[in-house]
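We include the entry.

. . .
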Amino acid sequence: MASISAVFVYLAGPSAKTSAASRGAIHLYPLSRINRALSRCQSRAPTAARLLCFFLPSVPVRDMDEVINDAGMHERGMLHWMDHPEVGRACLPSSPLRFTDAPAPALKPSPFLNQHEEEVLGGIFGFSAEERAALREAGAISVAAQVKG
């Protein structure tokens, strides 16, 4: 049914005698029981509203489809659809950092396994094609097919 993620202030207040982890453990168990009980009989919005009535700050947890299809996230540039050559259409997050007069960073698909083998091993480290082939035969380099982008 519904999932609620709640951010709770330590209800008993911080104590100098207990650690932050133990203070959280004291209160999370009963609150998670309340959350489960409310979630079984109501959808997310009424559950969150009910918790707020008892001054328990909470927020509904959205599922992945709701997040990646959120128009606001796409309009603000936080999410972008991309056609990835290996996995197809995918929704990728962008950097949350924005600087005045600087364009948002361009998104590009992640490199494939061994995509930069020639540039790195051949160009930077100076291995010849024969040496790379020997490394591949020895199992030091993956034999996965290279996809040039």
In short: The helical segments are 20-41, 44-53, 64-68, 71-75, 117-124, 129-137. Residues 62-103 form one domain. The first helix runs from residue 20 to 41. Strands lie at 4-6, 58-60, 79-84, 88-93.
